[in-house]
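Fold sample X.
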Amino acid sequence: MAGSHWYYAQDDQQLGPVSSAELRKLAASGQLAPDDLVWRDGMEDWVTARVVKGLFPRGAETQANPAKLAAAFSGFETGAGAAASAVVGVPEIPAAEEEPEPAERHFPVRLRHPFDLVLDALRSQFPPRFIHGIAQGFTLIGHYALYAAMLLYLSLQVAVTVLNREPLGLLVGLGTVGFLYVLQYTAVRFNASLERLNQTTGSRVSSTALLDCFALLALAAGAVVLFYAAGAEGEDWLIRPIPLGLMAFLLCEYAAFIAINPASLGIDVVPAERAGEEAIGVLSFVMKVLVQEVPLLFGLGVLYGIYSLLAAGYMLFRDGQLVAEAALGNAVFWLMLSSALPLIGYVVFLVVHLLVDVLNAVLTLADVEEPFSEDEAENV
């Protein structure tokens, strides 16, 4: 438990080590302020004392201005000037703790990169409430756009039925609309369930490095896809790849915003004790990002289905009913797939996190069955 000793910084000086109990006394007496920086072994960066659970009253556990802290400790040789306020999951100080004598510790030094400034700016402009607002907004878009899609589809199906002079086509259209109506209901209900599950199901990763690099790659991938789609050529101006490219761009950018706000998905950034725990955390993180994308996919998919229906109507009057029927079938496929995604995502989420729980149980069992070390065996 040598890692339980804390170091703190005041007036450009590094102080400590002190025990958790001593640190709590410093905070209670006012000798340690909420904006002072603290660190202990196992933490990636220095953080403000206010975010350490159990150190200050609950009302004080809010994040300080990262720019102000970075400027105040820019010359601190241990790297406190690089304190990352985005670090979450800071260890909690228990009520009582017996600790051995402290040992000398080597402090981590984090070099600031220009990309860190970009990510910090994005993090301040797109907070967690933006993530949830986007999810709720596209759920509403998909919900109401489906009404328009069903009405447009039924109108086109009636036109095709009249041209074919086959009343059976109208029954097919009515059945399809009824099925879409059911899928609309399931989509809205399961989108809400996914949002709730994603926030309440905890997950951990050992560093913000994974999340930040994922965000940068997602931003770059979105820009590349949009650039390629804008320059690609299609068979017709109505079916150029620009709509799909725009959808991919929005999905990539949204994934980046999710990654820079791990707290919005219930993800804590805490040191992992072994590679297996890190692998489980990465698997859970990827699953959470994909699930958070589902409302966006739902709304965008329905909008693309409407776009395809308009293209089918254009082809009906330009190229004839055979071409229009194929385009109409493609539009219905997009509408049904988009409406079924929340239900599919819900099932996949449960299966993956059942696997995560099993893997966590295996790791826990391995810890329990791990044999004593030589020093521990002597004490038994």
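Fold sample Y, listed below.
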Amino acid sequence: MAKPDSGLPKVYVQPGESRMVRKPVVLRTLLGSCVGITFWVPRLGLAAICHAMLPRYPAKPPPKPSRSAGRRYVDFAIRDLARQFDRLGVSRSEVQVKLFGGGDVLPVDEASRPTVGQLNCESALETLREEGFDVIASSLGGTSGLKIQFNTETGDVLLQRLD
């Protein structure tokens, strides 16, 4: 990846946001139990990222759900980006997908049910598979947060573990 001080503009992606870009930038975010998923289409210079916080969109959504509210959920965010790729004529086989996060950054009782981080990882892997995406790289779980910087010009992701 280009050095963080490269001339590319830097865009911070907040929790619950997704971004799709056509111009080279560095998309940055911080992850704990959330998952960050990068999508890169070299042929088109097209890139996207989602920073999802919760595993599944509610079975009974609010009366007037919005796309922006739905992007907080792993399954919704992936499917939303998949539909955007479909509208642009991008085949799943040409999308390079990388998956990060889902850590247990807060103390948990070992005998308790699965953590939000674990559920986010499971939801991401399952939904990506259902949508026909192959994950080419990942760093999931653990007990520390992650800082990721996604260079949309090269498709490289710089990963930094936070202590």
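Sample Y note: The chain has a mean pLDDT of 91.
Also: The beta strands are 10-12, 18-21, 26-31, 35-41, 46-52, 96-101, 135-140, 145-151, 157-162.
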